[in-house]
Amino acid sequence: MRRIYLALLFGCAAFIPYAFADETCLSPYMAKIVGQEDFVYVWTLGVEGVGDGEDKLVTIDVNPDSPDYGNPVSSVSVGGRNEAHHSGLTDDRRFLWASGLDTSKIFIFDIATNPAAPQLVKTIDDFVARSGGVVGPHTNYALPGRMMLTGLSNNTDHGGRTALVEYTNAGEYIATHWMPTDDALQGAIKSGQFADGYGYDLRVVPRRNVMVTSSFTGWNNYMMNLGAMMADPEAMKRFGNTVVIWDLHARTPKKILDVPGAPLEIRCAWGSGKNYCFTSTALTSKIWLIYEDDAGEWQAKEVADIGDASKIPLPVDISIAADDNLLWVNTWNDGLVRLFDISDPHAPAEVFQQQIGEQVNMVSQSWDGERVYFTSSLLANWDKQETTGGDLQYFKLYSWDGESLKPDFHIDFIEAGLGAPHQMRFGAYALYGKKRPQQVSQLQ
What we know:
The protein is mainly beta.
């Protein structure tokens, strides 16, 4: 029955009704929110001297019918600062995994028992040892009954050589799948100059039995001060230049594509028969299309510029619309969000831009396209410390009417004593057959 359900889901992806309101960057294996989301869970970096200074999961009430609308309703600190970065939900959506790029700890929260007040139920603190030396768990991605984690580094030289690490939903280690390199291609075809073994993000196209990974940089770089790193010619050479196409079921690399300039987030089209994904390159400020050609071969090509690369806008998070016609692109350094028309995926065109803050990192849009959320923090040693007038560390919600972004509310995370907000995930009572109580706030 599970196989039948998944087959129906993937075969009908293009016809998912717009009553769905969930964010659009999730794994296709996950149940989705129907209607208005109740909460956004924000994985937040601890900042020394701000609140308790610890990394934490902050729950924000985003249901406009709630008396707590626009406010944090709970906060769970995890002890210390771990370089909180990305988080992800299990396929049954009962647990949220949140990882730290510095300590390589993984924190698992129960969000089903009380969606308004997640509870920390397990900490994985042996990730490096169990994985065989992988450092910096990044993407936490749901597969059926599994979580696949991308690494950013290793414990040998703290460079960019890394792997995928697979766990059960219960947090039990299964396997490590190393990224292909020149001296260990593992059967993969090297299509260009590079086989660097770097990692970053992960997405899947189940109907094509394809898993796609991108590449960034190792611990030595992402834990360095940004100014010092950019002034170091050797450090600037240590960035990934590849996207890898994998056999999803076998977990083996098939083809290594050249995508120079540190390709970051991957977002794949939802429509059936649309066998392509997008990524953006942080260092060269371009949109790349990763696509299956008419011969069934996966290819990569740059298809658009993002701002002026000489000004180092630094593209970060991207978000594809549910109808595959629009792509939101955040550029961290100038604090702008840009919207591209991708109705022709081979020729994206910028149609809109707006200032969000002094810096901007993550963007999550609702499946119905009516709400767009933003957070600000990139990395602790890269974040700006002073503002020239824009908001620095924030959570913001905007309404999108197809022509303009209209602010609904924002939370200054420093003023609220919470820290630096990074990854967002949505939650709702309806997912668990629960009715929303009148009062949900757990904060005094």
